[in-house]
Amino acid sequence: MKPFRGASSSTAGLISIASIYVALIAVILVFARQIISDASLDTPLTNVIVIPLAVLLPLFMFIAIGIYLFRLLRDRRQGKAGAKLKTRLMVVFTVVALISSVPQGILSVSFIEIAMNRWFSSPASEGLTAGVDLVLQYNLDQVENLTVFGASLLLTETLRDLERTPRLVWQRIRSTVKFVHGMQAFTESGREVVFFGDTRALTSGTSVVDRSEGLLPKEIYPEYSVLRYLRRTRIGATDYVVVLSSIIPKDFDRKAELLSAASDTFNQIDLFQPMFRLVVIVFYTLFALPLVLLSILISFLLSEELIRPIASLENATRRVAEGDFSFRILGRGNHELATLARSFNAMVTELERSRNKLMQTEKVAAWQEIAQRMAHEIKNPLTPIKLSAQRILHRYRQDPGSIDRVLEPAIESIVGEVDNLNELLREFRDFARLPEPKLAPVALGDLVDEVLAVYAGAHPEVEVRLDDLDRDLFVPVDRDQMKRVFSNLLKNAFEAIRGRGTVSVTTDLVRKGDSSYCRIQITDTGTGIDTDYHGRVFNPYFTTKQAGTGLGLSIVERIVFDHRGQIWFETESGVGTTFFVDLPMEAE
To answer: Per the confidence metrics, is the pTM higher than 0.85?
Structure first.
């Protein structure tokens, strides 16, 4: 079997393109985040780490497309099957890719332009600014209210009853101002005297008694922040330190920072808006180009995938027309072209069966010829046997005393001719009555070594090469019969070499339909086989050797046929000959 295999694996190509596509999307996402971050942080866009990738990806794809174009042009120059159709398909796919990508690019750039004009419009900018102003104003109002109330005479009058009725003092403060959430009084030594309000406003006396009167630093906690105002007052003979606290709402500071950062980012992007728009368009082009190139690469793969079955069918048809019925197309999938390939293989299989039937018919005719040849071959030695016997009888009747002078040579002639008949009959018996092969797994490497040991020593001038012989290969065969096959083929290979030369044995695995076969190749660098003899090599009693019986290769062919195998040869005069033997790997 000589199955057709494509020059490249489309599956591997599609996986590679899919990987590039995923990588390209990842790079685009990284770039989209990076460019916004750079613009908002006022850093140069030339530091974007994806710029090298934006350059390398198109470069890599240009190289891949260049390789495909080179192969396509080479195939067209060599006139390979399907090259012109592949060119047309590739052009069509490329045009379709460009037609679909150009409007998309125009739409994307236009969308970016419109979106940026919308995003960076005056209402949006004014809204962010107003929000930041509101936050700042709220904070200033809280500070101012606490400062004004803390320094007011109203607080002074209210605190006079702090020793007698502290709770009443707190109630008066809360009824007067709602922004005070806690009141805490300490002696000058830092001892707490009284506390009212939200417990989050508590502070230690040691941290405040030494501070000057007025607004204290703002204290920020994970869940809230506190504004404090320190007021010193004297009640009777005792000096007190009073701390009024105002609690800022939950997450106010964090949200204020977020709003301020958003406003800064917006203003930064707005500042770089003209350059930002240009950079986005440029980088969009850089990343759109690989997508277009990726589409072109896919067009190459698709066109090759579509053309491969057609080209293989054309090649297979040519090979079958040349007489090679072992050729098959490896169809994949369940599409129409794969069905066509399977139909072609079925047709070739049927043709091969028809040829085998024809060969069997020819074999019957050959047997008729064999019978005639056998009659002729047997008749030839009978004549000298008859003449020798008649000579003995004649001498015995004429001169019995001198019979000893003709007796010995006549008997030797009779014995020699009888030996020739025995050899002829033995060869014929082996050819006609080969036993049914007894199959068992046999290591071909060991069998070849065993046969070579007989002939290699007798031909030291011939180099033996077994580099491509798989010694771990076991094939179900009849060991004795297969030894005879190798013995005959190797003997012929050694004898075909005049002087120095090479004999090599190789093995390989091939597929024929649903079956696996071991292919053995025995190659010699001998004189080759003349063209006139090609059709007669396996015919019984055909030989070019003076001492040959002409049954050796006929017996080899019979053994291979009984093993459900095939044998053929390729030869070139003055270069050498290769015999091919295909043996099934599965026992019947």
So the answer is: no
